[in-house]
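Worked example

This section walks through a single chain of length 122. The input is the sequence exactly as stored; nothing has been trimmed or padded.
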Amino acid sequence: MTQKKISVPPEKQLLYEQMLASVEGIEAKSNFGSGYTAMNGNMYTMISKHGVVGIRLPESERAAFIERFQTELFRGDPSWPPAKELVAVPDALLEDIDTLRPYVESSYRYAQTLKPKPTKRK
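Given that input, the structure is written out below as C-alpha cells.
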C-alpha cells in the first residue's frame, strides 16, 4: 500500500503519531498533506501542515483544557477561523504523552457519541 504524502514538519508528525498510538483503537488517516482521525465522518484529531495539533473535546472539558494548558481553540492555519470543538495542543504537552493521553481518550469516546455524517458515496 502506498503511503500518502504528508507535508507536516517531521518532528511534529512523529509526536502526533505517538499521541495516537497511546490510545488503542485509533486509526490515523491523511488528506491534503496532513493527518487526522475520524469516526463516522466526524474528525476528532488533526495535525495541520503547519504542525498545529488539535483534539476535539466535549464542551464540558474544552474550557478546562484551554485554561489548564494556556491554549486556545484550534486553528490549523493562522488565516482560518477557530474550530468550534477542537482545542490546540501546546507543543510542550504534545511531548508529554502521559498527561495528554486522557484527553485523547476522551476525544475518542466523544467521537463515538457523535451522529454519523451522511456519506457522499453512492
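What to look for: The longest strand covers residues 34-39.
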